[in-house]
Design brief:
The structure holds two protein chains of two kinds. By secondary structure, chain A is mostly helical. Chain A contains 16 helices and no strands. Chain A folds into two domains: 134 residues; 168 residues, MetI-like (MetI-like fold, Orthogonal Bundle). Chain B is of the alpha/beta class. In chain B, helix 3 packs across helix 4 and helix 5 runs parallel beside helix 6. The chains are: A mainly alpha, B alpha/beta. Bound molecules: adenosine-5'-triphosphate and magnesium ion. Magnesium ion binds next to helix 1 of chain B.
Amino acid sequence: MRPARAAPGSIQRSWAHALRQELFGSPADSLISVLLISTIIAAAFSLVRWALGQAQWAVIQANTTLFAVGRYPVQQQWRLWLLLVLVAALSGLSWGLLRAYPRADRSGQLWPFNDRLAVGLLGFLAAWLPAALALGFPLQWRWCGITALLVAMRWLAGHWGRSWPPGLVKLIPVIWPLLYLFGMVLIAGGLGLPRVSPSEWGGLLLTLLMASFAILLSFPIGVVVALGRRSQLPLLRWSSVLYIEFIRGAPLITLLFLGQNILGYMLPGGWAPDRVWRAAWVLTFFCGAYLAEAVRAGLSAVPPGQLEAARSLGLTMPQALQRVVLPQALRIALPAAVGQFISLLQDTTLLSLIGLLDLLGTARTVMANPEFLGKNAEVYLTLAVLFWCCCAALGLGSRALERRLDPTHSPA
Amino acid sequence: MTATSQLMIEARGVQKWYPNGFHALRGVDLCVSKGEVVVIMGPSGSGKSTFIRTFNALEEFQEGSISVDGIALSNDLRNIDAIRCDTGMVFQQFNLFPHLTVLENLTLAPVVVRKRRRGDVEAQAMALLERVGIAEQARKYPGQLSGGQQQRVAIARSLCMEPRILLFDEPTSALDPEMVGEVLEVMRDLAADGMTMVVVTHEMGFAREVAHRVVLMSEGQIVEEAPPTVFFTNPRHERSRQFLAQIL
Ligand SMILES: Nc1ncnc2c1ncn2[C@@H]1O[C@H](COP(=O)(O)OP(=O)(O)OP(=O)(O)O)[C@@H](O)[C@H]1O
Ligand SMILES: [Mg+2]
């Protein structure tokens, strides 16, 4: 049964009521509220007036490429566009399939309100942002095309995903890592593509690459170390503890400098050939240690009866961990892990201190350019908004995942 | 068939110490033959749970021997896995997997352990859910069911591995009184089908009607072992009389 139309209205009314209670409950409350709210509004108003009137956004408009990909060679940038197209197509496909296959106990909507909102927002951004950044017409069309592709794939998969062969649907989780590897090849070169040295990567590209590399690889590290820490085997347990305590005992910036100097000796030759890869490994191991603690907390929150039940059904220890214990532990660890990922994303700005041109590093070179002297406010505001968007996306994604995995504990 | 081949569980002189040195089982002997229903009773802390958990190697023991369905329990992991496949266990706290639907709870082990085709297992699982009377809940998650329903799912989950023995550790103790009946009903039904069962429970009615033998444990030992008619009306040991006086 669908809820009656009146429901949202009544919810809003009670919302307004609660708000009034909170803000204007007593005369003193009212005074504080009025003062606070007027200060906030005034501040926001001046910010908007500055952003629309005084600020000179030419510093951003003239450097969009630099902020996006750093000094990536112009003749090779089609590779990044190709990657973007593939990512957009696969995102749309996965998104649509998630809606086409709701949870077993739910009759999911094909186009819930949030999805319509997201599509609207994407469309607006695709139309407005390239124009606001004063990109050329071809580029504006390219962005619109990519967004349209994403939405189209979302629509296709949402409506017809159910009639596709189940093998295809199961393939999606495998395609993502493959696409990641292929993206690496596209970015770095190989398989016949000319090499682009990591020192030429920069801007948002470098920031996202470092963060995603560290996030993806730190995950298995975190799980293994967390299991190791709870293991019966003393050697495994003690080495896990040692690793965690070593990483947590030192600030990231120290580890980054240390990594630049010693990772060349520690890892096999090809793994950390230059400064960028060394930094990537340090970020990975750093994040892995914190993640291990989050996963360990998740593991201890799973009642021991779960493992016993799995074992009593004849599952071996690895099977029981994989099918019963880890799915529950990881779900519990998810919010803490995503918090960790968000701070990792922000920590990538430390890379600028070891001389890499990530977003912050790029921004600093731009601001050092005599042509754009004194435009710090514009640059930093842009940076803040960019980071905020990335972190918000991570947060939203994790919350959606959490809801989907929520096993709806007892009805009582 | 010889008498020994019909023995499903044979425990001889089992002794167990917990890692903290507590002597939980002090030489326990028990034989259960095929199709028999044995009820174990005893005061709290007497070692009932510890004892039946040694049958499927959830607890280790230090001395004595146990063989289940003709397979000796040893440190050999293959033996342990074989025994666990043949032995279902139902827990006081249900221990359903909360992240899987009811149907997936049933199909997990047959698909993963016995490598059976999912389609076949699902058909069998639905038949079992039908039998315990909750087929219409198959697509729900355990957290959305009542306690009695959850315990019936847990029984069906054990049955889906087609075990030759079922172990129950106080299956009704965590249930609200009005739900005890529905679970006991399923267990009665299983006993009538000739399932070999070892049941730790304080449900007198169930023991009286269904059990072939009642065993009383106290302080890690078996004090009395008798058919229910004898056990409840005319126990031989003073300790049994005290126990019955307490729970009646
Ligand atoms: N992990 C453990 N370490 C040490 N002692 C334990 C452990 N588990 C149980 N014991 C002790 O072993 C004895 C037997 O425990 P067991 O759980 O088998 O009792 P029970 O007969 O099942 O009791 P109940 O009716 O309360 O379930 C108890 O005295 C208990 O304190
Ligand atoms: Mg017990």
